[in-house]
Amino acid sequence: MVESTNFDDLLNPQLHETYQARPVFVGNQQPRPVSEKTPLADAPMTTALEPEETRRPVVIVDDLHVKYQVYSSGKSVGTAGARRLLAPSTRGIREVHAVKGVSFVAYENESIGVIGSNGSGKSTLMRSIVGLTPPASGSVYASSRPNLLGVGAALISDLSGDKNITLGGLALGFNRKEVDELRDDIVKFAELEEFIDLPMRTYSSGMSARLKFAIAASKQHEILIVDEALAVGDARFRKRSEARIREIRENAGTVFLVSHSMNSILDTCNRVLWINKGVLEMDGDAKTVVDAYKAYKK
Ligand SMILES: Nc1ncnc2c1ncn2[C@@H]1O[C@H](COP(=O)(O)OP(=O)(O)OP(=O)(O)O)[C@@H](O)[C@H]1O
């Protein structure tokens, strides 16, 4: 007989019942490092960044450099025939310098768009702010742990949408009771009432994206990073997710939105960072930066 796995066996209630997502540095109003090259927590900032005194800084990125080590196959693209044979081998480890000395201060209640061409380093910068990708040098300071929107990693496609709400909710730091209280709102927001008992693998990509967004956005994040999440779903869902992002921001959150949609950026953000080839090309009022970016792209 094949033994079936109980859903509760997949979780560890003892572990999760009291689990709460903890800020990186508890009880300290000052931004503190979430990641930096050296373990010196109180290392002075290397650049002349001066946070405004009238506003509360929530994220400080100080001269951040991020590098990837990539294994190169040795195939030099574009060199044909004999030229390829004569060309020096590029086999081995190659370094990609994805973020090159980016510095800025983000304040409470700001909604910051992050724009730039493909491969310019936007996602890398965001992953570094969350602490997923370590910097090669420089530091990131945050008043509490920034959250990258998305609970995708915690979800299991063979389980129903409903059970995945439990999984995703626990991954966000809610306890079971809190997840149960939020469940109906999440299902309603995702508009999946009729499908919530079906395994997630039967969902279309838009349906699972809606569920992931609805789970992740059910939490009032203090620092939230949304990387292209709004590009999914239809226009109506996009409008509602934009509205939810504005709501999070209005409730004293700070939101970063990485997007290629200038309309989403202009609708949602009051400030924009333009990243170009790993460098912070421009930082300012949303319309000014978007106009400059559009002019550059022409
Ligand atoms: N895991 C990785 N390993 C190696 N190189 C990487 C990795 N992730 C990103 N890169 C490289 O770092 C650079 C910046 O990539 P990143 O994904 O941050 O850009 P992006 O601006 O978010 O791009 P897009 O708009 O296409 O999503 C690119 O040259 C990319 O090839």
Short description:
Belongs to the ABC transporter superfamily. With 298 residues, the protein is an alpha/beta fold. Helix content is 32%, strand content 24%.
Could you explain the architecture of this structure?
InterPro entries: AAA+_ATPase (IPR003593), ABC_transporter-like_ATP-bd (IPR003439), ABC_transporter-like_CS (IPR017871), ABC_transpr_TagH-like (IPR015860), Bact_Polysacc_Export_ATP-bd (IPR050683), P-loop_NTPase (IPR027417). This is Teichoic acid transport system ATP-binding protein. Residues 83-298 form the ABC transporter domain. It comes from Paeniglutamicibacter kerguelensis. It holds the Pfam family ABC_tran. The protein is α/β, with parallel strands linked by helices and 298 residues long. It is built from 10 helices and 10 strands. The strands form 2 sheets. A 6-stranded mixed beta sheet has the order 6-7-8-4-9-10, sandwiched between helices. It has a 4-stranded antiparallel beta sheet with strand order 1-5-2-3, with helices on one face. The N and C termini lie far apart (65 Å). The model is unreliable at 1-29 and 37-43 (pLDDT under 50). Adenosine-5'-triphosphate binds at residues 68, 70, 96, 98, 116, 118-124.
